[in-house]
Amino acid sequence: MKRSAYFLSVVGAFLCFTVVVAQPPKSQQYVYQDRSRSFEERADDLLQLLTLDEKIQLMQDVSKPVTRLGIKPYNWWNEALHGVARSGLATVFPQPVGMAASFDEVLVNRVFSAVSDEARAKYSRYVQQGSHERYQGLTMWTPTINIFRDPRWGRGMETYGEDPYLTSLLGVAAVQGLQGPSGGEYDKIHACAKHFAVHSGPEWNRHSFDAKNIKQRDLYETYLPAFEALVKDGNVREVMCAYNRFEGDPCCGSDQLLMQILRRKWGFEGIVVADCGAIADFYKIGAHQTHADAAQASVTAVRAGTDLDCGTSYRALLEAVQTGVIKEKEIDASVRRLLLARFRLGEMDEYSDVPWNHIPYHVVASAKHHALSLQMARASMTLLQNKNHILPLNRTGLKIAVMGPNAQDSVMQWGNYNGTPAKTVTVLEGIREALGSHGEVIYEQGSGLVENYIMESAYNQCKTEKGKGFQASYWNKKSPDGLPDVETNMPTPFALCTSGATVFAPGVALQDFFARYNTTFTPQKNGEVVFDLYVNGEAKLKIDGKEVKSVKTGHGSRKMNYMMSVEQGRSYAIELDFSYFKGDAQLNVDFGYRRAIDVKESIAKVASADIVIFVGGISPALEGEEMGVNFPGFRKGDRTDIELPAVQREFLAQLKKAGKKVVFVNCSGSAVGLVPETEHCEAILQAWYPGQAGGTAVAETLFGLHNPSGRLPITFYRDTTQLPDFENYDMKGRTYRYFNGKPLFPFGFGLSYSSFQYDRMKVDQNVLKRGEGTKIRLTIPIKNVSQRDGQEVVQLYIKRKGDEDGPRKELRAIKKVDISAGEIASVLIELSEKEFAWWDEEQLAVVPVSGTFEVMVGGSSQDQDLQRTTVEIK
Questions:
Q1: Does residue 3 register a pLDDT over 70?
Q2: Where are the beta strands (DSSP E) in 769-874?
Q3: 631 dihedral zone (left: phi>0; alpha: psi -120 to 50; beta)
Q4: Domain spans of the chain, in order of start
Q5: Which family is this sequence assigned to (predicted)?
Q6: Angle, helices 105-128/164-179, rounded to nearest 10 degrees
């Protein structure tokens, strides 16, 4: 095959590296080694050379080498949700739900093109070092395109929101950015659409939960469209099946989902990978228990089309074949797909022959990518309230009090499934930098997230030979014998957990490991220091070589606190030993000076401020994937209510009572009920988890250096009384499409510092005949009636008249346009018959149908923002 001109231009200036890998003897020339052959021919040839045992080894996420055939070891598990994750240095972009607020598929594509550059560069570095561990490969298990149907779901922040169209649009953009342009000899990396398919909480029972009695309409209209789009339009190379059951069958063993729909109806030919440990859930006590053992579970999964087990259950396939339960030929179908993927990535060929391998390492966490992270963070900023146009703030002579638990929390900004950025700009730092010499900043945290105390961390007063924080050493065995297997530095307070099969650090085992954390602590003041630990396993804390506290858990995680008096300037040697015990290993560590919240005292400290910027909300430490930590209002990472935590709500009420003008910056990955806050605060800015440059983006927005254009990709409800039962997957009453109540802030809503006036839209025709390939053209004149340039997000919704059981409205087109002050933009939107696809009860499918449709265009989904016309489809 010839390489495309595109690849030659990309790699022309790059250095080449030579890597020695195991290869068969030169005298053996196989078809699979011949690069002039197609990948399909090469995979077919290699398949017939493998033994049964070798095939089964290749069907596990930790794929062992087949040295005699030159197959290198490969670990399939890697992550890139919003940047290369869990593999050290990487650019951290805003959390996906924040990216979704941009309503900008072009920018999303640029972000993931940068992510895939870093992924290839990091892979190349690891290969040069001879390392093939988890989080070092080319198969990225992202994006998450489940529908965020309920704001209580802890993992909703990993999605692109509640709308199937927006999720499809941005999901395809992410996949295409990750996998690289089509037409080249090799794929850049492989993306993975997850979690297939009816999967969006709860987290606490996901290993046993059965999503059942799902209406066919909800299945095909809500839960499947994004997956279908990524398969058909995005050519996604992998799909991950979910933990839960679907209509009685574990998703990874569902013939209906994986064979009938994914492979036969949609024609998906790529890899289906099981979520980690999902096959074991078939037979584990306390999980689904639909199968007796690993062999039965594995046979069912393979026959349903699951090719790769993230786990070890597939080892039982060897005995299953030998005893005649399954035929080797059935396994071959999966192995062939796995081999084909590795050929497409160039992983089976000489390192230097693959152009993508020559992307230089200096792209990782580069200044260019930091700028792109800032651009995306700006685009995600969503202004929800701006009473009396208090924003943007005039910097001249302004005295600002910055308060709240998220004001200087860099880790919060990273979200989850993240890498480690070279630098993070906190909101406090961003405000100080943006204000500069124009005014004055007072910082007083005042409130915790959910606690009635404040921890002033002393972590930054710790140093090791390798820098700030703790030195972490790991042994992949139960005791610290010999040299550590992995060593790394922990510069920030850590929250480690193996829930969801997440390792403590790259190269560390999931279980039966030992960890030791060392540092030297030199206090900057006298006082009482509290060590705050949350542990599942066995932990021992030593100060100056003496054990002062230990905890060993028998069931679930436990808190461990230790208080000690410290003297300023004296050095204390701190050592924390941790060993896996049973269940999910967990270790959260921070320590510092703890003091009770004193609202009056804190407000008194900011009495002279002209305005208070309160940076609150929630945190990935509270919401997330199957977490072991429970707080009031939270359960296993899900939420039991959606209101702002009480401690913050009360603090904001007291600020209002004291006569302070408050701008509330809400950081969250999900909708927060902010009814009292709309009364207590002058302005509300939704900042999401904005990534490493988030503090700059927030500050620029507050001071008018950036004009906000973000729009809500989810409905902000008033409170939990507006929500149906969390475990009910019926879409009735959910999301803007089916919710009949009055939300606090509707889907698609967001304010700007500019004002836009929509003139009446013009339609070139009101009748469209199916099958003729014609289009309806709508022209929407929009005038910027303000004195400021801005961006408007034009949203088009449709509804089929007479369909009382269907959605109230469906997003079907987006146009993001720049409009200068005083100027008029004529926005053109073209609609073909595919935009009028609707549920057809006879075909049990979403297809172009005849009927009368209402077409609605405006700046949000709320009725008063939309103008309407009628279109007839024949």
A1: no
A2: 776-784, 790-800, 810-819, 824-831, 837-840, 845-848, 851-858, 866-873
A3: beta
A4: 367-454+597-722, 456-596, 754-873
A5: Belongs to the glycosyl hydrolase 3 family.
A6: 40
**Nearest Cα to 531, choosing from 568, 566, 561?**
561
Cis-peptide into 632, omega within 30 deg = no
Query: Chain-wide mean pLDDT for the chain?
Result: 93
pLDDT for residue 2: 36
Q: Three-state SS across 692-726?
A: CCHHHHHHHHHCCCCCCCCCCCCCECCCHHHCCCC
Distance CA 750, CA 793 (A): 9
What is the reported pLDDT for 492? 82
* Rounded CA separation 162/147 (Å): 5
Average pLDDT for 851-873 = 97
**Percent of the chain at pLDDT above 90?**
86
Nearest one of 478, 567, 582, 581 to 529, comparing CA atoms: 567
Q: Give the CA angle between residues 729, 735, 738 to the nearest 5°.
A: 85
Q: How far apart are CA 393 and CA 408, in angstroms?
A: 20
CA distance 333 to 344: 17
In the chain, the N- to C-terminal Cα span, in Å, equals 47
Classify domain 456-596 by CATH number: 2.60.120.260
3-class DSSP state for residue 348?
A: coil
DSSP state of 568: T
- pLDDT of 466: 86
CB 241 within 8 A of CB 288: no
Active-site annotation, residues: 275, 623
Structure token pair of residue 667: 């950081």
**Predicted confidence (pLDDT) at residue 436 exceeds the cutoff of 80:** yes
Contact 234, 171 (CB under 8 A): yes
Six-digit token string for 610: 């002209």
CA pair distance 106, 431, nearest whole angstrom: 29
Sheet strands side by side (includes 810-819)? 767-768, 866-873, 851-858, 790-800, 810-819
* In contact, 578 and 535? CB cutoff 8 Å: yes
If you average pLDDT over residues 783-812, what whole number do you get? 97
pLDDT number for residue 10: 39
CATH 3.90.79.10 fits 367-454+597-722, yes or no: no
Residue with tokens 């089309």: 305
- Kindly indicate the confidence band of residue 170, based on its pLDDT and cuts at 50, 70 and 90: very high
Six token digits for residue 16 = 């080449």
Single pTM value for the model = 0.90
CA distance readout (Å), 742 to 189, 547, 722, 723, 799: 44, 57, 9, 12, 19
pLDDT score of 771:
87
Q: What is the pLDDT of residues 341-351, one digit of tens each?
A: 999 999 999 99
* Helix 694-702 / helix 427-435 crossing angle, nearest 10 deg: 50
List the Cα angle 767/769/771 in 5-degree steps.
Answer: 155
Torsion 590-591-597-603 (CA) sign: negative
Length of the chain in residues, anyone?
A: 874
* H or E element in which residue 662 lies: strand 662-667
Task: Calculate the alpha carbon distances from 594 to 455, 527, 528, 597 in Å.
Answer: 4, 10, 8, 9
What average pLDDT does this structure show over 278-288?
Answer: 98
pLDDT recorded at residue 532: 84
Q: Does the pLDDT at position 87 exceed 90?
A: no
pLDDT of residue 293: 98
Comparing C-alpha atoms, which of 266, 254, 242 is closest to residue 147? 242
Q: How far, rounded to the nearest angstrom, does the alpha carbon of residue 119 sit from its chain's CA centroid?
A: 16
pLDDT of 264 above 80: yes
pLDDT for 6 equals: 38
Structure token pair of residue 661: 């003008």
Place of tokens 């941005």: 170
Residues near 807 by beta carbon (within 8 Å), at least 6 away in sequence = 221, 737, 738, 799
